[in-house]
User: Which sequence fits this backbone?
């Protein structure tokens, strides 16, 4: 059963994220230096511009890089940095084709432990430790992908009842709680520098 994600805060985009493992991965990849809703609407925008109702890793992997960049840059742009993000999404899809036969869900389908799943996520192009831990928490909390030790592997993002990241957003109220937490962390970091 698919979750009902509410990350894009737009029904069509959230529906795609909920049913498409690749869309969820791409949304997570895009979630940097832009508002979360913009990032997680990106997979829907890309699918529509490609003329499909889902993303296909093989198609994106094989696409002419300049064409993909143009598709990302078309107004409204998929991301604040359309050229670099088009390249990153293509690298992610190429990696998935090479290592997982183009099937994004194969990244987590048979992971025996949270540690193994975190390692697989860390190996994805564009996924550092924090992004991998957040996505692991999203898989556990909302997709019910719960290999042994997943909460520990997800670090603080795996904590039950936390409101730290996209993994905890289930609607407008939890979105506001996550935003408040992030603002609190920014203020604390600024206070340390002062």
Assistant:
């Amino acid at each position: 059963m698919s979750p009902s994600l509410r990350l894009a805060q737009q029904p069509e985009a959230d529906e795609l994220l909920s049913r498409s493992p690749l869309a969820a991965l791409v949304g997570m990849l895009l979630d940097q230096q832009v508002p979360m809703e913009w990032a997680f609407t990106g997979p829907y925008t890309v699918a529509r511009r490609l003329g499909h109702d889902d993303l296909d890793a093989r198609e994106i992997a094989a696409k002419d890089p300049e064409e993909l960049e143009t598709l990302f840059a078309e107004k409204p742009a998929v991301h604040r940095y359309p050229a670099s993000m088009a390249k990153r999404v293509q690298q992610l899809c190429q990696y998935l084709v090479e290592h997982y036969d183009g099937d994004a869900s194969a990244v987590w389908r048979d992971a025996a432990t949270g540690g193994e799943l975190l390692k697989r996520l860390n190996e994805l192009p564009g996924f550092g430790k924090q992004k991998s831990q957040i996505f692991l928490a999203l898989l556990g909390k909302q997709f019910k992908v719960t290999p042994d030790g997943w909460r520990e592997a997800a670090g603080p993002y795996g904590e039950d009842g936390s409101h730290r990241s996209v993994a905890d957003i289930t609607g407008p109220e939890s979105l506001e709680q996550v935003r408040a937490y992030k603002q609190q962390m920014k203020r604390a970091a600024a206070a340390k520098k002062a």
About this structure: The mean pLDDT is 95.
